[in-house]
Amino acid sequence: MSLLGDHKTVRILLIVLSQFAYVAALIINALAGPGKGPFERSTGNISDRYQTEITPAGWTFSIWGVIYSWLFLMNAYILTWLCRGLYSSPAILPSGFFLSWIINMILNSTWLVLWDRELMIPALIVLALIAFTNYLMIFFSCLGLRAHGSWLKQQHPKDLFCIIVLVQNGIATYATWTTIATLLNFTIVLDLASVSPTHAATASLCILLLEVIIWFTVENFLIEKHVRYILTVYPVIIYALIGSLSKHYIAAGPGRNAIFSMVLLVLGCILLVVRVGLVVWRHRTRPLFREVSPEVLMSPNSGTDK
């Protein structure tokens, strides 16, 4: 078999394995929710046992349904590549994307087991790794669009749209929520280490504030051309903060962390408006994917403006 044939076989194998990993994770999540099968308690019951001053209201966690539905659409779209020959020539999403996805799904299932056994420190480590592998997938998707964005725009514009909406923004939603979940898990670990619940929650909110400021700076001024159309980060943060405030904010006498959360909520709304405004302005004045000549267009390796 030729090297090209070997490469295509590996790509197909990775895509298929990533689908199996997703289905397996869905099954395990379905069992973990109500506490069936190997799970001793429902995930909700354990969450109730480890409440913090910033834990969102129960309804907030329904976002998992949105996330998994979004990821289902992403995976269904990727499966269509096998029928249309887009899985290898070109490799729109690098192999690293699918490897990261498989690892992510394994970590996802592992976290559920650790959470069920109330092993909070190992659960924190695994949850942080879940968020990290999500960041890796965003990175690999950006690499793919940098290499093939212009080709997709001129030859497969619908696929370019699907990659931006289903892949990049779907993973960004998942990444943002798991980042917030990591901070909640971190707060629990601090509580168990006899740190004041108020101080523990404040520490996590400080980390969230730092992450938001760093991300806003990086996405708008350092790597803007790579992440221009990723827009779901701030809505997820806003949603999580609203969920937290709906549970912990007392108008007659709001606590320190409730006030901090309110400030973060206002900041998140402002940054979302600024971010959308910058994206619209840059989309009109600085098109992301450059026009290429017919000769260059024959090759799928044409990317963004340098």
UniProtKB/TrEMBL annotation:
The keyword Transmembrane applies. Keywords: Membrane, Transmembrane, Transmembrane helix. It comes from the Eukaryota. The chain crosses the membrane at residues 12-32, 57-79, 91-113, 119-140, 160-180, 200-218, 230-252, 258-281. PANTHER family: SI:CH211-161H7.5-RELATED (PTHR33802), SI:DKEY-29D8.3 (PTHR33802:SF4). This is Uncharacterized protein. It comes from Onychostoma macrolepis.
